[in-house]
Amino acid sequence: MPDPRIRPFEDRDWPAVRAIIDAVVESGTSYTYDSGLSDQAYRALWIEAPPGQTVVAEDADGTILGTAKVGRNQRGPGSHVANASFMVAREGRGRGIGRRLGEHVVAWAREAGFRAMQFNAVVSDNHAAVALWQSLGFDIIGTVPEGFRHRDDRFADLLIMYRRLQ
After folding, report:
1. CA distance 94 to 109
2. Beta strand pairing status for 81-88 and 116-123?
3. DSSP the chain
4. pLDDT tens readout for residues 19-53
5. Residue ranges of domains in the chain, CATH in brackets
6. What is the pLDDT of residues 71-105, one digit of tens each?
7. pTM for this one?
8. pLDDT at position 89
């Protein structure tokens, strides 16, 4: 199976990206986003304006299997640290899509001159994500105890993960 092509998001991708967002947010297991937001609200959350970018992972047949966004974690004196978010479609899971998106975003941020990358809210019991980010060189540098509430009212810690880029 050939690797997916990672390319910049285009407006024509929005229906597929929105479907991925809906599925991931509705699962209630990994994002602190409210469910049921309007197109405009989800676009504002997901489509990263320059100097950041939003990308998609596209299969050979044009199917969007995942998406990521990368940009500044903070403004002003904190703008040298990048932040990124990732979502993979159900049909893309287990195929290395998250890893490819992660590798792409880390390389892009390094080339863009960011000194580090920080993830602010990785759900601790999303073991696949935690393992992936650790395998890509991210360390857990902080924990927000019970910072995430699952749909079934269980609580999980939110992890802050960090990696130097330069």
Report:
1. 25
2. parallel
3. -PPPEEEE--GGGHHHHHHHHHHHHHHTSS--PPSS--HHHHHHHHSPPTTSEEEEEE-TTS-EEEEEEEEESSSGGGTTEEEEEEEE-GGGTTTTHHHHHHHHHHHHHHHTT-SEEEEEEEETT-HHHHHHHHHTT-EEEEEEEEEEE-TTS-EEEEEEEEEE--
4. 999 999 988 788 888 888 888 999 999 999 888 99
5. 5-119 (3.40.630.30)
6. 999 999 999 999 999 999 998 888 899 999 999 99
7. 0.92
8. 94
